[in-house]
Write a structure and sequence with these properties.
elongated, transmembrane, mainly alpha, Small multi-drug export protein, transmembrane helix, 147 residues, membrane
């Protein structure tokens, strides 16, 4: 398998769920820093795509819904609470762990956060969590054998 295929094998899963990137890196026998960089690249690629297509995607999604969304669902209240309390850094911090890169970006765009702020904070926390999760998976004894 070529190295570009291995890198894509980490980037593509981390575009959907951040934790899948480090797991794919272990499976593809990449070094920890290659895995970390590809995981960050996957999340940030998703962030860039959905920042600039987010509004169109939300409008298209709403057009095909059978019923209008609940105005105050449990999840929307929780998202508003996180945003009011912690702002964009809070959403960005929780995106790799709880939200997906897609969900976190769409959530941030729904609060009308400036694209530059979204990119900055998502990049900061993609690096932070990418480093921590990748090092944890690569260096905690016995964790790789479980996976």
């Amino acid at each position: 398998m070529e190295i570009t295929e291995k890198y894509l094998g980490v980037i593509l899963p981390s575009m959907l769920k951040f934790l899948l990137g480090p797991l794919a890196g272990v499976a593809l026998k990449l070094t920890w820093w290659e895995t970390m960089l590809c995981t960050i690249a996957g999340m940030m690629l998703t962030v860039l795509v959905f920042i600039y297509l987010g509004k169109a995607i939300r409008m298209g999604w709403q057009r095909y819904r059978k019923s209008p969304p609940k105005r105050f669902s449990k999840n929307s209240r929780r998202a508003v609470r996180v945003y009011r309390r912690f702002g964009m850094p809070g959403i960005a911090c929780l995106t790799p762990l709880i939200f997906t890169p897609i969900g976190g970006t769409l959530l941030a765009t729904s609060f009308n956060v400036a694209p530059v702020r979204i990119i900055f904070w998502m990049g900061v926390f993609a690096f932070f969590w990418g480093l921590i999760l990748t090092l944890a998976i690569y260096h905690i004894p016995g964790l790789q054998t479980i996976l």
